[in-house]
Amino acid sequence: MSWCRKLRRRYDPPPVTPDEAAQDRERTEESVAKTRAVDADVRDVVARLRRQRQENHFGPLIWAALRGSRMYEAGNVAVTLLALVALGFALDYALGVRWWTNPGGRLVMATLIAFVLMSTLVAVRVWAGDFFLHELVRLVVYAMALATLAGGWVLHRTVRRGKHRQRAPR
Q1: Residues 4-22 pLDDT 10s
Q2: d(C-alpha 144, C-alpha 138), whole Å
Q3: What is the DSSP letter of 14?
């Protein structure tokens, strides 16, 4: 290809006609004018929403309504019963099942222990408030729950991978 053809090819006429470009400019100017017309209204709405978010009228009202009612105490009782039932189930499972003989049983037992510790931590904090070394106990309990969940996921992926490899055509 000669340099003259390359030059012509490079500077072909644009795919948009001058009339189309003029129409696009007009539409753009109209759009900018509309945007500027509602700009003050939008700024007022944004400022009002920011003030409402900073004042947050609804959060304290809802919290005060729940704290003053029987519903909050019912939640406290429910979380305490949850901790007791979870503890009972964990003890029954620990004493009645040979959970240590396979990975699934060990996973179930670790999950039960993590659940019992989390629900007990919540129940103790609900009734007694913050206690000595609360942050440390909380960190240990939630880290154990995270490790248990991650271990369960790894076990699930390992078992699942084995099944898929057996089914693969050769």
Answers
A1: 667 666 666 667 788 888 8
A2: 10
A3: P
Mean pLDDT of 154-163: 78
pTM: 0.51
Residue 118 contacts by C-beta under 8 Å, 6 or more apart in sequence? 141, 142, 145
CA dist., res. 128 & res. 141, Å (int): 18
Residue 4: predicted pLDDT = 67
- Report yes or no: 118 and 86 within 8 Å, Cβ to Cβ: no
Between vectors from CA 109 to CA 142 and to CA 128, what angle results, nearest 5°? 45
CA dist 64 → 52, 77, 149 (Å): 18, 19, 36
Q: What are the residue boundaries of the structural domains of the chain, listed by start? A: 9-55, 69-167
